[in-house]
Design goal:
Two copies of one chain form a homodimer.
Chain A: E1 5-11, H1 23-31, E2 36-37, H2 39-51, E3 55-62, E4 67-74, E5 82-88, E6 92-99, E7 105-112, H3 122-129, H4 133-158, E8 165-172, H5 174-181, H6 186-189, E9 203-204, H7 205-208, E10 215-218, H8 228-237, E11 245-251, E12 254-260, E13 265-271, E14 291-298, E15 301-306, E16 314-315, H9 317-329, E17 347-349, E18 352-358, E19 361-364, H10 365-389, E20 396-402, H11 403-408, H12 411-416, E21 428-432, H13 434-444, H14 448-458, E22 460-463, H15 470-476, H16 489-492
Parallel strand pairs in A: 2-4, 5-8, 8-10, 11-20, 13-22, 14-16, 20-21
Antiparallel strand pairs in A: 1-3, 3-4, 5-6, 6-7, 9-10, 11-12, 12-13, 14-15, 17-18, 18-19
Helix pairs in contact in A: 8-13, 8-14, 10-15
Amino acid sequence: MRTMSRKIYLEMNPPTEEDPRPDTQRIRDALGEPVRFSLSVLRQLAVVLPDAAWKITATLGYDGAGWEVIRLEKGNTTAEHYAVAVDLGSTTVCMRLVNMQSGSVVASESRFNRQIAYGEDILNRVFYCRNHPEHLEEVRQATLESFREVMDALTDRTGIPAEAFSAMVVSGNTTMIHLFLGLDPFAVFASPYAPHACDFDFYSGSSLGLDIPGYVYCVPCRANYLGGDILSGLIATGLAEREEISVFLDIGTNGELVVGNRHFLLAGAGAAGPALEGGSVSTGMRAKTGAVSKVTMEDGKLRLHVIGDTKPEGLCGSGIVDLLSVLFLGGILDRMGKFRDGAWDYVEQDGQRGVCYGEGLVLWQSDVDAFLRTKAAANTMVDYILEYAGIPMDQVDRFYVSGAFGTHLDKESAVSIGLYPDLPRDRIVNAGNSSLEGAQKLLMNMDRISDIQRYLSAMEYIQFGAVTDFVSRMTAALAIPHTDLERYPSVKGKITS
Amino acid sequence: MRTMSRKIYLEMNPPTEEDPRPDTQRIRDALGEPVRFSLSVLRQLAVVLPDAAWKITATLGYDGAGWEVIRLEKGNTTAEHYAVAVDLGSTTVCMRLVNMQSGSVVASESRFNRQIAYGEDILNRVFYCRNHPEHLEEVRQATLESFREVMDALTDRTGIPAEAFSAMVVSGNTTMIHLFLGLDPFAVFASPYAPHACDFDFYSGSSLGLDIPGYVYCVPCRANYLGGDILSGLIATGLAEREEISVFLDIGTNGELVVGNRHFLLAGAGAAGPALEGGSVSTGMRAKTGAVSKVTMEDGKLRLHVIGDTKPEGLCGSGIVDLLSVLFLGGILDRMGKFRDGAWDYVEQDGQRGVCYGEGLVLWQSDVDAFLRTKAAANTMVDYILEYAGIPMDQVDRFYVSGAFGTHLDKESAVSIGLYPDLPRDRIVNAGNSSLEGAQKLLMNMDRISDIQRYLSAMEYIQFGAVTDFVSRMTAALAIPHTDLERYPSVKGKITS
């Protein structure tokens, strides 16, 4: 496997009057291959080589066309070879420090994306930047600041300094990569939805403002709403290499979806609404300390699991799905998602009912309605794309759920409310942060870049926003688990009333 | 001919929902070739493309491996295509702004190299930088400041801004390129004379600290004392492409020499002493206002030509050679370079004679001795290398003299004192600033880079410092024109006494 950076130990003879080859030529000859030299390495030669008695380890970074010597160290340090995989999410920047020799993860760290200061909603950030290059630069700097924070955390955790980060792969959606590189992302959201760039060259860390010696590769995007995070997810799951058909679903602010196998790839994307991240539920919150992440019903009472075991402060996505599921299966919510008369000791306000699930915390009817619209959107995307491809649900061998949201969601609850299809549970696979996982795989095997290029060429893309009967299909999917109950045999059996 | 930058006019259709290709892909498709995009171009796409209604001119710069879009302009600007050739001399930085469409020179400018503040003698600059990275950076910045001065002068002269300088070729000796790139040049001067780098990658202007969009290529060096200025001279003269044998001589602080044709190349270098630039002559000075640049004798009186037609302040190189020649041919200097008794109305001081050639300006016996050592060194280099190659002088078809010094030297005077060999005068060719000329040729035809690589591989290199009988040969060459007068038949006939 061709890793995206290499470390090679070289034992050379010092120059003599008989052999006065320049340092760079001596290193090239020892490597046995043509390489470029970064300016900072050129400037170190005079000191490092004599100090190391011409026994050095050269780190080579791939610049998109060839190899560049990006670092020199005294002695043999080939065992200490590291690079960084990044998932640049609109909410969170997650990184893994990867041991490039073994492929193992040395440490993982994440921080909230400092772009949030310019808007929780990504559209606010986009409008802030629009036609204001100085604002765009502010947001880019905020992004870099988050990168630095996470990199510092990796260093604090491991003692491995940023100068040892010999390559970086960044996976993110089209907007995130635009902002990271300093491109105005407005075009991503406005007709005709032509991004400024969807595939990216290798840029040196320093040119991007990152204090690492190596090059940065951003995973290419397919379209405005179908970003590198999804392509990276295909690498992570291997979906596009298998004979069996899989579905890959990433639901966050947007819903992104890929159906396919080694022979075909069909992708779609559309707005799913921020409900799944707790956004449109009045007491929704991110999955952090104080968030209710799990809900069960025992003896007619709600039992909550709160992150950090503290007093509950609100519901994160998995808590909402669990709560809706127990309320539905417990007969409190009917199939249309309405609170049944007399089924609970409701609180009421402004003419609507609500279920108090914690001190001062109420799930209102309007919250349920909003969330069901999101789940209907996700359900309809899967439904539509499978129908478009002519694939019955039972031919789906694996149903990957990706993203931080999917990681914490209870499969059973998600099927019960009709967010996931009613597949045998072992076919529903939590792909975790597949964007990050794919970035890590790319670091370890550069040849997979050509796989991505192949996927991009093969992939057909559907903008759900342009599908005319999408809204009527969504309406049918608003019911719990779905208007067509035959699609949910396992749920049908559980419905108590 | 493949120029080192290209400008291409593209008429594209704006994106539509049916054709939402990203801007970068749209440009690649229109170009019909794969290209990289500089970050600054990526960041301009959102503004430039709509403003230009997708009718743009792309400037492509060569980065050493492929083409990068380095600039976008509205409309068709292919007729305005410029690049810069640079001769980075230890004394002077000379540039030509080249029209890349026609190959013609739009303007030339030069300024003294600000490195001079760190020592007139290049060795002082080298010692200042040695083991002091912060001093090295100071000297690098001084070099860049000179670049900026000359570039500003080109802009002032032509109205063409630096952002239109789409490529740059820099030709200089090994030390100058080390300092330009920020490499400690001490190794160039100290045994075992192994430079840190002799061939150079293409570096972006911005990475070097120059505010130009394009890439910078430094002409490779052959060895410590045989720099890119000489290789560039070979490109300029075409010496290594012809069947006939030529000699190429560049005499400044050092003497560099190439003998050869399309079948062989033999090069040598050694210290020539700064005498030729006026350095070791007590009233010597650079060729600027006040310098005596030409001397004749009429009716037993010296007649001076002074640069700027002012009062004489000293002798520049061509003035020294002329003065020595008229004193020798006039019988004042004998063949051993000593002032003959009673041949002139000498001034005397500290037991040595001198010829007063202007008010308060004296050429002392010690000045003559110093200069003759330099001319002997230059003469011996040519003599030695031809003998080494087994080539009699009469087989030399062209004798190129390069450098600012050679440009102003009177051929007849230079032969008379034995600085040049006694060849038919039409074989002695003033190659002018061949370092700059070669840089210009490389801009216009990138394929000549591979010619340079071929020359470098073919070239045998002699360090004159390592030639054991060099000093005894030099002693024979101290005489005017030479101890062996048969080598100078044309001078023999002129000797009056």
